[in-house]
Amino acid sequence: MGKGLDNVRDIYLDGIAGGNAREAVLRNTGHRYTQHSTGVGDGAEGFLEFFEPFVARNPKREIEIRRILEDGRWVWCSAYQSLNDGAAQWVTMDLFYTDKDGLILEHWDTIAPYVAKTESGEDMVGGVTDVDINGDTEENKALVLEYTKQVRQEGDVSKLSNFVSAGVVQHAAPIGAGLDGLATWLESDDAGRYEMLFQLVGQGDFVVTYGKRYAASKEVAVFDLYRIAGGKIVEMWMNEEEISPRDAWGNSGKF
């Protein structure tokens, strides 16, 4: 486990869940902290302007980091949040870029409501949690890159079985079970058009993409998480957030 991974855990679990936002952000960020969570300003002060009132407004904060991985200076994690005894439940996916010492320099995220009843019947945050570091990271990243290009961006759903297992376990809230459920969603208006792949990171059997899609006349920032085994995607998660109008941003935007 690298220092960057430790710092991400600390800013989440001590800074936000533990309510020690000021100490945590100063301890875990580097010479800059560029922010892409659009409601939060840049720098440590921007973080504090958002999270100190958040902590006061939500005295009961249960946060569980469900999955976390590192790829060089990149750290990605997904968390489940229950606030005030379940009055609000959220799923977040976060991407961090760190300096050579693991201090956080930049942050991207999507925040979505936790959906208890998914189309597939699988838990939105359930499934395998631990990275199998024996997986071939580069081979798995190459597979997901081609899936993203050929199926998501070029829209060739006929190639789906080249990349995805017939028994794929689906956790994305709006997508039905198995290969058929995925194909149906990809061909729907709800899926829209995958416009841009911004970043792809991975470790072992897990690979993550962060990009933008256009659906129902809306721009959507989306993280997709894939678990690969036997040369195919065998498990999938998705977390997405509609991109707010430019005049509502507190920083340079989602990307």
Folded structure, characterized:
This protein is an alpha+beta fold. The protein folds into two domains: 3-114, Nuclear Transport Factor 2, Chain: A; 137-242, Nuclear Transport Factor 2, Chain: A (Roll). It is 27% helix and 39% strand. The protein contains six helices and ten strands, in the order ααβαββββααβαββββ. The protein has helices at residues 3-17, 21-28, 43-57, 137-153, 160-163, 178-186, and strands spanning 29-35, 61-71, 74-83, 88-98, 104-113, 164-170, 193-203, 206-215, 218-229, 232-242. A five-stranded mixed beta sheet has the order 1-5-4-3-2. The chain has a five-stranded mixed beta sheet with strand order 6-10-9-8-7. The longest helix is centred in the middle third of the chain and has 17 residues, at 137-153. The two termini are 27 Å apart. The mean pLDDT is 97.
Strand content: 35-45%
Q: Which CATH first-tier class of the largest domain would you pick?
A: Alpha Beta
State the domain count: 2
Radius of gyration: 18 Å
CATH arch. level architecture of the largest domain: Roll
Which percent bin holds the helix content? 25-40%
Structural class: alpha+beta
Number of strands: 10
Segments where pLDDT lies below 50 for 5+ residues? none
- Helix count, DSSP H or I runs of 4 or more residues: 6
* Series of H and E elements: HHEHEEEEHHEHEEEE
Principal-axis shape equals globular
Largest β-sheet summary:
5 strands, mixed
